[in-house]
Amino acid sequence: MNVEHSFVTILPIELSCREDYIVAGRNTLRHGNTIVFNIAEHGAVTADLIFYGPYSTLSPGVYCFIFSGQLDGELKLDFAHQNGTVVLKELTVDNFLDPVCFAVTKILTDFEVRGYRTPSLNSLRLESISVETIRFFAA
After folding, report:
1. What is this structure's pTM?
2. Cys bridge to 135: 21, 34, 50, 61, which one at CB 3.0-4.6 A?
């Protein structure tokens, strides 16, 4: 069996942020090339969804997502496709130390990563999401 590894990076600019965070024509979650949530600044927004996207297509394989940035409190993550109607994996994290991995057995369209605030989320700084893909092929 042959194995193929590939790596891509999802940058915060490729992710969408809710319009609830727009003040004076600017999304206050966007700080340069990062997404920054702070309860002191954003606590009045009632929507839980912070970021979502990038609406890509995934081929069969094992995917490991490594989040870069800082997290104070808990962030709910889910991984979905078909415009968010099918959730592949859902979890709550309190750090970005461990990768989140799962297997994809068929081609998925409109794949997205979504991050939601929880009652304990104080701050979030998302700098990037690295994605390692492992595919297996018959020899």
Report:
1. 0.92
2. 61
